[in-house]
Write a structure and sequence with these properties.
Elements (H helix, E strand, L loop, with lengths): L1 H23 L13 E10 L4 H9 L9 E8 L19 E8 L2 H7 L8 E2 L5 E5 H6 L2 H4 L1 H5 L8 E5 L16 H9 L14 H10 L3 E9 L2 E10 L6 E5 L1 H11 L5 E6 L6 E18 L2 E17 L8 H30 L7 H8 L1 H7 L3 H5 L4 E11 L7
Parallel strand pairs: 1-4, 1-5, 5-6, 6-7, 12-13
Antiparallel strand pairs: 1-2, 2-3, 7-8, 8-9, 10-11, 11-12
Length: 405
């Protein structure tokens, strides 16, 4: 009888626990429907330049107290656009997003100011992209521009940050209505395995680490015009000031990528010295090994660059050479081009901009920590005077498929 009572109590307890679990598994409490929210996926920061709508509003009403320093643009997913042209029978012609801008001196205040203009509150749980205009970054440090973003718990730390050489908000315009521009830029980063012109993505959390360490770094540069967007070169951020220092051209960026060894794929196009014909080397693997040395109290570096690839294109006008001769000529031509790229990239970051964006300082801190402690406070200037040598070893693993003659 006692055993039956224990079993009944056990079953009752199990049923009670199951009931409580079901209650707490029914869904999220105190949430808003997604249709009732304005989800912004892109954020653009420009030097203050009021839009026509803002100017008209200011003429009609008294503007809130502010200094016109920054134009802040949000790209908001417009769920309601899906049905705006449903009666036409050919699908919607409305864009699936809207871009709204505010001008002021506080990013957080401007976000809240959107509440006085829109029917839905804007939230940034799904923010994917931040675009910063280089002119704005010359005026204000990245610490100031990203302060609000880093403090806001609603914004994800893996959001991508890029720099624009033109108006940042132009990146959020597109031809056609099918693509959300912020998503398009994110997807373009995935093409890194096909070109060295795309940098490893710099997220908010990575930039925060660079800012805290007062290190120099690169941000992908974006050019936007007439609804088209292209990655072109990179923007250099100076460690001490955390401001825009200058821009790397596409060739200079390629040279820096070879130095860092962080490329996933791409090609090197060169020209045969004798025939002046095109030779294209497709990169399959690349890596670089950096070594620091202290001799008589003086620092120096050597970088060994290695790559394996294949001869993917060659234009031979006559008297086609053997495979061995062709490979030898292709290697000489390709190595010469890589040296040219590394030379111009290294000269730009070391002599012109005086910014260590490759990681020489990090290597020194690992291999010679005592020496690093002596120079770390003024590392970028010290870096500009340090001798740096490099060696290159390329290997052609195959020449691709060729037709039999």
């Amino acid at each position: 009888m006692m055993l039956n009572q224990c079993n009944k109590r056990g079953r009752l307890l199990l049923v009670s626990i199951s009931f409580l679990v079901l209650i707490f598994q029914t869904g999220c409490w105190s949430t808003d429907e997604i249709e009732d929210l304005g989800l912004f996926v892109g954020m653009a920061l420009d030097v203050a330049n009021q839009t026509e709508i803002e100017k008209k509003m200011d003429r009609l009403v008294s503007s809130y107290r502010k200094k016109d320093l920054i134009t802040f643009t949000l790209q908001i997913i417009d769920k309601q656009s899906e049905g705006k042209d449903a009666n036409s029978g050919g699908g919607t012609t409305a864009k699936p997003y809207i871009n709204v801008s505010e001008t002021g001196d506080s990013l957080f205040e401007m976000v809240r100011e959107y509440s006085a203009r829109m029917e839905r509150p804007v939230i940034g749980h799904h923010l994917k992209l931040i675009v910063i205009n280089e002119k704005l970054s010359r005026l204000y440090s990245m610490n100031n521009l990203l302060n609000f973003v880093l403090r806001d718990n609603d914004l994800r730390p893996n959001c991508l940050i890029v720099m624009s050489s033109g108006l940042a908000r132009k990146v959020f315009d597109t031809k056609g209505n099918s693509v959300i521009p912020a998503f398009r830029v994110i997807n373009m980063v995935e093409n890194r395995y096909r070109t060295l012109k795309i940098l490893p993505p710099m997220s908010i959390i990575k930039v925060e680490g660079k800012m805290n360490a007062k290190s120099s770094y690169l941000l992908q540069n974006v050019v936007a015009t007439d609804g088209e967007v292209k990655f072109s070169g990179a923007s250099v951020i100076k460690g001490k000031t955390q401001k825009f220092r200058g821009r790397l051209s596409e060739d200079e960026l390629l040279g820096v990528m070879w130095l860092s060894g962080k490329g996933k794929g791409g090609l090197v196009k060169s020209y045969d010295e004798k025939t002046k014909q095109v030779i294209a080397y497709e990169i399959k693997t690349m890596k670089s090994k950096m070594k620091s040395q202290i001799k008589n109290g003086k620092i120096s570096f050597h970088v060994h660059i290695e790559s394996e690839g294949r001869l993917i294109e060659e234009w031979v006008v006559a008297n086609e050479p053997t495979d061995n001769e062709l490979n030898s000529k292709a290697l000489q031509s390709t190595e010469k081009e890589v040296r040219r790229l590394v030379n111009i990239g290294l000269r730009k970051i070391q002599k012109d901009y005086k910014t260590d964006v490759v990681g020489f300082g990090k290597r020194l801190s690992i291999e010679h920590p005592k020496q690093w402690q002596k120079v770390k406070d003024d590392w970028d200037d010290e870096f500009s005077r340090i001798p740096i040598t490099y060696s290159i070893k390329l290997t052609i693993t195959d020449t691709g498929a060729k037709q039999e003659h």
